[in-house]
Amino acid sequence: MSDFGKSLRLYRILDADTRKGVVVAFDHGSMLGPIPGLGPHRERIGMFLEGGADAVLLSPGMLRACADLLAGRGIGIIVRLDWTNMWRDAELLGFEEGRSCAIGSVEDAVRWGADAVLTYMFIGSTDAAAEAEEVRRSAEVNRDCERFGVVHIIESMARGSRVERPNTKELVALHTRMAGELGADLIKTDFLDRESDTAEMVSTSLVPVLLAGGPKITEASALGVIERSVRAGAAGIVFGRNVFQASDPVGFLREARRAVHGPERGN
Predict the structure, then answer these.
(1) Among 78, 83, 98, 99, which residue's Cα sits nearest to residue 24?
(2) Is residue 149 packed enough to be buried (19+ CB in 10 Å), middle (13-18) or exposed (0-12)?
(3) Helix (H, G, I), strand (E, B) or coil at 219
C-alpha cells in the first residue's frame, strides 16, 4: 500500500503483528431497529473494549453517541456509509429485494475521526440496473478513499431473488474478486461451510478477506467457524450478533482473539 495514510489507518483495524483483525459490527440498529443485544449501547461498547476488539463498525449516529468512550482507547473506527432495507422482515415492512443508498461521504468520515469506511455491494437482484448501481456507488466511495487516504472495506454479498444459496464458493469468489478489482482494501463477506472452499476463495481475492458472522449461532459453533476460516487464510472476522447477543460478550471476544491472533493474544 503506497499511501502511508492508508497504511497507518489499516493497522488500526488489523493487528500490525498478525495482520488480522477481530472487528465487532454494531451498526445493526440503523437498519433493523432495537434488536436484542444493542442496548444499553454504551455498556456494550465498554464490553467490546474490555474484550479486546481490534475495531468496531458503527453507524454515524452510534459513533457520535459513543465517541467519548472510544477516544484514546486504541481501537479502530469503521463507519458504515450506506443503508439498506434488505434485512427487515416482512412484518416490519421489509422487501423481498431491498435497495441501498448512501448516508454519508468519505469526507464526513474523515471529519468524524474514522480510520475506515464500509459499503455494501450486492449482486443477484432481478434488476440489472440496481446491481450496476451497487458497483458504481462502491467504486465512487473507493475513489474518495484514495483521495483522503482512508481504508475502504466493501461488504460484498450475493442476495436477491436470483440467489438460491448466498454462500456458495462460486458466488462468494465472484463478488469478492469484483470488490478487489474495484479497489477495496479489505472485504467483508459470507463465510463458507467448507474450509477448503474458504481457502480457494481467499486465494483468488486480491485483498484480505474478513468473514461476516451472519445470524446468531451457538458460541461454540461461531468459534469453530472462526478457527476454520482463519486456518484457511481469512484475515479475521466482522461479527455482530454473535458478539453482542452472546451470553458473555467479553469472554466470547477473548476467545475470538485467540482464534484469530493465536493462543497467546487473548486478553
Answers:
(1) 78
(2) middle
(3) helix
**Quick check: 168 pLDDT over 60?**
yes
Residues in the chain, how many? 267
Count of CA atoms in the C-beta half-sphere (13 A) of 117 = 31
* Burial class, 74, CB count within 10 angstroms (exposed 0-12 / middle 13-18 / buried 19+): exposed
Domains in the chain, CATH or no CATH each? 4-259 (3.20.20.70)
Asked whether the beta carbons of 242 and 252 are under 8 A apart, the reply is yes
Q: Give the residue from 81, 87, 166 showing the smallest Cα distance to 120.
A: 81
Task: Express each pLDDT in 188-234 by its tens digit.
Answer: 999 999 999 999 999 999 999 999 999 999 999 999 999 999 999 99
User: Per residue in 29-63, pLDDT tens?
Assistant: 999 999 999 999 999 999 999 999 999 999 999 99
- Quote the longest CA-to-CA distance of the chain: 49
Tell me how far CA of residue 127 lies from CA of 31, 97, 152, 159, 162, in angstroms: 22, 9, 26, 12, 10
Per the CB < 8 A criterion, the answer to whether 51 and 267 are in contact is yes
